[in-house]
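User: Quick sanity check before I run a bigger batch. Here is a single chain. Can you write out its predicted 3D structure?
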Amino acid sequence: MKKTQTQSSRRDFLKMSALGGAGLVLGGSMLANIASNVETSSIMENKHKNKPGTRKLGSLEVSEIGFGCMNVAWAYNMPPSDLLNRHTNQKMTRIIIIGATGGLAQNVIETAKKADNIQLTLFARTPGNLSARISGGTTVVQGDAMNIDDLKRAIAGQDLVYVNLSGDLDKMSQNIITAMKETGVRRIVAISSIGIYEEPLQAILKPYRKLADNIEASGLDYTVIRPNWFTSDNEIDYHITRKPEPEVGGAVSRKSIADLVTKIFANPGLHKNENIGISKLR
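Assistant: Done. Predicted structure follows.
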């Protein structure tokens, strides 16, 4: 009789040890499934008294006794937050804003920060001009678009480059294109201007025409956006035309342009390899 009890205790001990080991690797939800298939007299007698409860961890339901997501995370050598992101298939799109201190760029930044799964890097020659409201929650990098080494350091590892500049746009756009090719980044969205295909071309618009021509010829996955004149109206109301369609409408709000740009950030395939105008219809 004593020998039988010893053998029974040993079997129970081995089963419970196996159960605990499985829980460490597989997590609390699978532990509950394993436990339901183990039939020993001690478990059956105490199933109501000793049955572990469950708790919520994000969107996962795990055992309250400590096994589950945390141990799975450690087993796979990743932080629990990364495990939860993997569980929900979230992927951050990394976007760099070149020319982040400009008025339109700041509208784009504010709108993009409200979108899901977008990680912003702000590239500016004078980052001190960025308010905490704009720079909060982003990575800020000081650099000059006339310096190709600054650009390469900032662009490396990004998924999309947004260009919102003024000045020597011919040289700056060539530098950006070179930096993107050397760092393996392919997607670019650039702000040009209305009127760049009119003849005779106004002198003030020649840099914006150079920007558009360089980007279209780059071989990158591009979107050139040609906004009408900007307003500060608190509205989202715009119409899109595609080159070579004639430009129509009138001045458009910065909020409208920011809405279009953020939609491209969220869906980088949108308007890929297109040269588009944006305006408000009257």
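The chain is about 45% helix and 20% strand.

User: Great, the batch can go ahead then.
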